[in-house]
Amino acid sequence: MGKAKAVKKFGTFGGVFTPTLLTIMGVIMYLRLGWVVGNAGLLGAWLIIIISFLITLTTALSMSSITTNIKIGAGGAYAIISQSLGLEIGGSLGIPRYVSQGLAVTMYIFGFREGWLSIFPNHPAFIIDLVVFIIIYSISYKSADLAIRTQYIIMAIIISSLFVIVLAAYYGSMQNSTVDSLKWGTFPGSIENNFSGSDFWIVFAVFFPAATGIMAGANMSGELKDPRKSIPVGTLWAIGLSFLIYMGLAYWVARSATTEELLNNYNIMIDKSFFPPLVIAGVLGATFSSALASMVGSSRILYAMGKHQVLPASRWLGGTNKTGQPRNAMIVTGGLVFFTMLLRDLNAVAQLVTMFFLITYAMLNVVVIIEQNLGLISFRPLFKVPKWIPWVGLITSVFAMFIINATISLFSVAVVLLVYGILLQRKLTTPFEDVRSGLFVSFAEWAAKRTSQLAHRQERAWKPNLLIPVSNPESIKGVFSFLKNVAFPQGSIKLLGIGPKNRGNELADQVNELSKSFQQSNVFSSWAVIRTENFAEGVNFANQAYRGSFIKPNIVFLNMINRESYLEGFNEIINEAARLQIGVLIYSQHPNSGLGQRQMINVWIRNRAPDWKISWDIGNLDLSILVAYKLKRNWNAKIRLVTVVENEEQKEQARKFMADLMDQARLPKTEIAVYINNFNELIKKAPNADLNIFGLVPNPDFEFMEKMVDETQTTCLFIRDSGLENIFA
Questions:
Q1: Preceding peptide of 489 cis, ω within 30°
Q2: 474: how many CB neighbours lie within 10 A of its CB?
Q3: What is the DSSP letter of 136?
Q4: Which of 257, 329, 640, 660 qualifies as a cystine partner to 302, CB 3.0-4.6 A?
Q5: C-alpha 712, offset from chain centre
């Protein structure tokens, strides 16, 4: 087999500066700059140019900062945003931007056709479009190297067109005085609206797309020798030079033509030049080069999304030939451009293309704002920008969107959000770590600091955060579903492996797998292993250590599966949990019935006579009801409050107490059962349920707890409050 050819890599001049400069110096410069000056006057035109380039410059500075901080892959802005904010956000911008870039190719082809027809008005329009498309597609399909070499020729033509404009100035084209030229315009409008008037922002909206070419070089990021250096240097030089050219041309045209000429003749720059054919060639070259750069750039965006498995048929889209050219992505892009050519009129979507550019600019600035404000050590760009730069870029990008067209702006944002929602459902696997991890960590730290400053008990923020000791991982499998239903959806589970040193690695692997299983069930889980042979000591040490954590355990889960462990160590754990204000949940499973049909939960309330009154502190009952309510929701079950009293008077008091409890605790569809009987007698004929919940007393009688399981013929929970829960909160 022959060796695959090395992929051609480009430097700053060919890979970034040339395509960026040529895309900025496009058809608007030749055919609409005169009209802009005619409406806004020279001062107004200069202000429009300055605002437009301020938006692109601040974004370019932000882009330069972020590209010098990451190892950027193929796809330009898509790659930058994906590697910073994740594939979902990158793809939500990359997909519409790819489509809009394809539409831009068609618009540039149509622009070329208009220039051509001004010379040869009898040539068939569609044939011109088709020939230009075939040439552009052939060059792009062959290789990016050929496209860039072609752009060198076009650059020479454009430089020549600017030279004949300079010659025109030299030989006396600037007849108007400087004083007369330096004025603010009256904004009379255009031929299309019969000069019925315009305003500053309408003229700005017409001109602004001229400045949206700063991504042309960045789109080649995957084929640059040193993108970290080339993208900032090439882009900023291209912006700086094109800004000077635009400002100079605005001055020249204001001095060389009357206001009437500027408003009525879109070809005024051609007519006033020293050698008009060269300027016409410049117009054709500008549209051709912009189309070529967009064709090459859009295919690289599609290829990058294919490499990251963002799209259907990603494996095929992310393929390259022996020379490293993304031929498959080129085929799809060619099809997209050809199809849009058949529409014949893209005025309706022209503004949409600009909007997706601006949304991309805004997100690039957002990336830098996030990175700068997180203060992470991983953000150390070689090209640093002041903090106000990305803010100016973000605000002006959003401002430009709504100035140009508020309706289309909202539609563009809606498209991006729709694509984001679709990609979010796909659960994409990110092949790199993005800034979201740092963002979430920083937010968690901020929240932890704020929470620690709060003096009250945070009862409204209560969530079940379970500490589950694990000495035998197999024992957890039988209660996995139960634990998940106690914690889901907002709670968490901390698995604590407890075992001797010789089981350390084996136990760690088993506990890790259990934790992953909870994560896959959408329950946040973490794990740790303590090497000790003393079960109670391990649990207590962990509880003590976790007191300093942000998400600290508030319930210790103990399983009565092993009689020896609970007879020896449970009391020690219960007492220490009480000292640390941690709730205790002891699970005693019935060997036959398990959790039954999961339709009814009995919560037993002790006889409170003579004080059957509702107060903020209702004793050891809050956690029992909270756990019952969690299970009720996840099982779609019912809760029954059960108590035993001695006489009719207490029965009425108990009923009123439980009715008030249901109302104030907001417990819908809860049943009440009050019996006049002896507790030990009643328990033998307890009301039917799938789970019975009892309060856990200090120094509990484990034989009595075993008896409850036998008597009720159900699995039982024995729960003790931490003192920090409140069912009324």
A1: yes
A2: 9
A3: H
A4: 329
A5: 51
* Residue 663 structure tokens: 């109302």
**349 within 8 A of 377, measured Cβ to Cβ:** no
Phi, psi values for residue 389, rounded to 5°: -60, -55
User: Which candidate, 655, 34, 55, 117, places its Cα nearest to that of 392?
Assistant: 55
Give SS3 for 127.
helix
How is domain 12-426 classified at the CATH fold level?
A: Amino acid/polyamine transporter I (1.20.1740)
Q: How far is CA 729 from CA 229, 646, 668, in A?
A: 57, 31, 16
Q: Indicate the pairing of strand 583-588 with strand 600-605.
A: unpaired
Exposure of 438 in the CB half-sphere (CA atoms within 13 A): 18
CATH superfamily, with its number, for domain 455-586: HUPs (3.40.50.620)
Structure tokens at 371: 């990175």
If one looks up domain 589-729 in CATH, what number appears?
3.40.50.620
pLDDT in tens, 399-456: 888 888 888 888 888 888 887 777 777 666 655 555 555 555 555 555 555 555 554 5
Question: What per-residue confidence (pLDDT) applies to 3?
Answer: 46
H or E segment at 611? none
**What are residue 717's DSSP bridge partners?**
587, 693
pLDDT in tens, 482-531: 999 999 888 889 998 888 877 657 888 888 998 898 988 888 888 888 88
* Strand-pair partners of 511: none
Contacts of 713 (CB under 8 A, 6+ apart): 590, 592, 593
Closest CA to 188 of 177, 178, 179, 200: 200
**Spatial CB neighbours of 545, under 8 Å, sequence gap ≥ 6:** none
- Terminal C-alpha separation, the chain: 74
Amino acid 294 reads S
**Would you state the structure tokens that stand for residue 720, as one six-digit string?**
């003790």
Task: Note whether 641 and 603 are within 8 A (CB).
Answer: yes
**Ordered strands of the 555-559 beta sheet:** 524-531, 492-499, 465-470, 555-559, 583-588, 715-720, 691-695, 600-605, 638-645, 670-676
Fold agreement (12-426, 455-586):
no
Cβ within 8 Å of residue 240, ≥6 positions away: none
One-letter amino acid identity for 385? Answer: V
**Angle value at C-alpha 187, between 158 and 23, nearest 5 degrees:** 25
Contact 487, 633 (CB under 8 A): no
- Please state the domain extents for the chain: 12-426, 455-586, 589-729
Q: What is the C-alpha separation between 439 and 85, in angstroms, rounded? A: 10
